[in-house]
Specification:
With 118 residues, the chain is mainly α. It has one domain. The chain is built from three helices and no strands. Helix 2 packs antiparallel against helix 3.
């Protein structure tokens, strides 16, 4: 699937889910509901919240994968620069440092996602 179309579909899904969540939030206090009706609305609300979290989690996972690839590429380029020309060693070290920072970010984001923090 075209990434642009996928992003568009995600955005539309998020918009619709938020719209329905807002409707549920309004209906719960505005209508005299029996406990079964209220529970079904709450159940729906919980499931819709889970949909939003899954979409966000999927995006975080995809970003982490993409960052990991970029970090690995940068690490390789830094090593190649060092071996090609010693004068580029300082730049190579800076690139390597950024690659390590990216790797830490991916590790932290992955752990936070696993723990449900983000």
């Amino acid at each position: 699937m075209d990434p642009e179309k996928l992003n568009s579909e995600k955005t539309e899904t998020i918009r619709q889910v938020r719209e329905v969540l807002n409707s549920i939030t309004v209906k719960i206090p505005d209508f005299p509901l029996h406990s079964i009706e209220r529970n079904k609305l709450l159940e729906s609300s919980t499931e819709l919240e889970m949909v939003l979290l899954k979409i966000i989690e999927q995006d975080i996972l995809l970003i982490c994968i993409e960052l990991s690839v970029s970090g690995a590429r940068l690490k390789d380029v830094a090593a190649e620069l060092s071996s090609i020309n010693e004068k580029l060693s300082s730049i190579s070290q800076e690139i390597k440092k950024v690659a390590q920072t990216i790797a830490r970010l991916v590790e932290i984001a992955g752990a936070a996602s696993t723990l449900g923090i983000i």
